[in-house]
Design goal:
heterodimer; A: 184 residues; 3-stranded antiparallel beta sheet; globular; B: 164 residues; alpha+beta; 8-stranded antiparallel beta sheet; two-stranded antiparallel ribbon; 5 helices
Chain lengths: 184, 164
């Protein structure tokens, strides 16, 4: 499914506002991946869309990376803020993103809200354990890390079948019905 | 844009083969939209998909609408109009920009759009996970407007439409 930039903005603004947090680029990329993974596991389709590529620091949607990169460029070169967000650099020169316009809960379906909640818990709980733990999850022994490794070896985008197979193997689940939906 | 029919090829979807998609709802604040894809009636893969949905307990009226495109679409460019399965259960939320990158092939008439919108609402009301509350509200408004613009008809799912 193509990357929907407006859904990306909506999801990130909603999560950041709900948790009263600013998000850095790493968190934005990983939240996107996990929102789409958890929604696809339940509904057979992503919320945001875009293919995930095996970047050095784990799976990343090039379209999302390009969007945030254009925000950074506009901010650092022209001092321009993107629609709906306020950017700033922290002491470590990390880009931090804070929403200025937040979608309402009614703008999301229940399954989208659940997927966002699971993604937030997963990404933020892993990061609380340290960057090494996040690396282990996203490009190590975690289910998504194993799917990342297969893509890394093939030089292709992550395959949804691999993501689902690795999830099922890790948690002893059976999502064959979702894989059937993804065939069409 | 509502009712516009575009021929879209989506990466990683439908084996990257282009299919007509009708725009059912547009979200002005978000600048994205909900589109419904169409497939040739009798095609193997769509039949397999519909059967899979039925096995999962979904009735026909929550999965698709069968329309004779020659009657329901004003084509603006050469396209072989035929009876098609508009697969509502496979609705997609895409940016309007990505939809407009496809080729616009026509405009669906209000009656066809009404049948598709009713099917999508039936799906959303049955499966409350599928659409946001704001999308359902917009869908109800669309149906209200189309009902006033179009004589009421029902589709008997065998392709023959009857006035109700």
């Amino acid at each position: 499914m193509p990357f929907n930039q407006y859904r990306f903005d909506d999801c990130m603004a909603y999560l950041a506002a709900k948790h009263g947090d600013e998000l850095n680029t790493y968190e934005l990329m990983k939240l996107h991946v996990m929102i789409d993974v958890y929604h696809t596991l339940e509904r057979g389709k992503p919320v945001i869309g875009g293919s995930f590529w095996p970047f050095t620091n784990g799976p990343v949607a090039r379209s999302a990376a390009s969007r945030v990169s254009s925000w950074r460029k506009g901010y650092e070169v022209l001092g321009k803020q993107p629609d709906g967000f306020q950017l700033r650099s922290d002491a470590g020169d990390r880009l931090l993103v804070k929403p200025t316009a937040v979608p309402e809960e009614d703008d999301f379906s229940r399954s989208e809200i659940e997927a966002m909640g699971r993604a937030w818990d997963e990404v933020m709980d892993t990061l609380k354990k340290g960057f090494a733990a996040s690396q282990e999850f996203f490009h190590g022994g975690g289910f998504i890390g194993k799917a990342w490794l297969k893509a890394r070896n093939s030089g292709l985008a992550l395959d949804w079948n691999d993501i689902i197979d690795e999830y099922d193997a890790a948690f002893h689940k059976n999502h064959s019905h979702i894989k059937a939906l993804l065939r069409y | 844009m509502q009712g516009s029919v575009y021929r879209l090829s989506l990466t990683g979807v439908d084996d990257d083969i282009a299919h007509p998609h009708v725009v059912v709802l547009t979200f002005s604040g978000n600048r994205d939209c909900i589109v419904i894809p169409a497939y040739s009636d009798g095609g193997f893969k769509i039949k397999e998909y519909v059967d899979a949905c039925k096995q999962a307990g979904r009735p026909d009226e929550h999965i698709y609408v069968r329309l004779d495109n020659s009657k329901h679409i004003d084509f603006t460019s050469p396209f072989s109009a035929k009876v098609a399965i508009w697969c509502v259960a496979r609705f997609r939320r895409l940016s309007q920009k990505s939809v407009q990158q496809g080729k616009r092939i026509g405009q669906m008439k209000p009656d066809g759009l009404l049948q598709i919108a009713r099917c999508l609402l039936a799906l959303a009301e049955k499966d409350t996970d599928e659409l946001s509350k704001s999308a359902i509200k917009s869908l109800r408004n669309l149906i209200k407007g189309l009902t006033q613009a179009s004589p009421a008809k029902t589709n008997d799912r065998d392709g023959s439409e009857t006035a109700s």
